[in-house]
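Lab notebook, bench 4. The sequencing result for the construct came back, and we need a structural model before the next group meeting so we can plan mutations. Quick request posted to the team channel:

Model the 3D structure of this chain.
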Amino acid sequence: MKKKLFIGFFFLISVVAFAQSERIEKLPTFDERKLHYGFYLGVNQNDFKLNLRNSSIPNAVITVSPTVGFNVGLIADLRLHKNLNLRFEPGLVTNSKKIYFNHLAIPRDSVREVGSTYLHVPLLLKFSTDRYKNIRPYVLAGISYDHNFSSNEANQDDNSAGEFRMKTSNFMYEVGIGIDIYLYFFKFSPSIRGVFAINNEVKYDDDPNSQWTAPINYMGTRGVFLSFAFE
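Done. Here's the predicted structure in token form:
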């Protein structure tokens, strides 16, 4: 993931430098539109923030290993002010994570793989600077709802049968920065943002003394999204 972000960062610098060197202002009336649409593609790396109960199982050690996933979606942008837009960006997000229960000695009990496909529905406020030539930096922030299609919350089996259960409905907040780059036929907008869960996503085992879920006080998504929007 770090290599992809590194490549993306230098790609972004190259595009920005090209846009700044252009003397002709492209799409001069684009930002006067009240409503416009687009789509985005990107990559993500999601992890879990873990808070453990020290008093439950004193020797509990739990770690998470994330992998790179992908995200794709649509954009609806409503102009509220010359520097403020309301954005609706529903999309699909896929990723997977491995959870290691290092306090359990048996290999089949000590690892759980959590694969997820989410319907990610964010509502964001985008604060932009004034346009300079063919670029326009911005920051954004908002809340989102995630519906986990891979959730096994309703499954009667729990970790005693090898099933680590996650909740279906979750809420997030997200913040990010990006830059609008005006090209001849469309606006290209790369951004990087952090996504953080508000609620606890773990579905606890039926046994209140479970070696897997009893030590967990809170487990929520925290992720980095690198997105490329075309509007």
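The mean pLDDT is 86.
Will bring this to the meeting.
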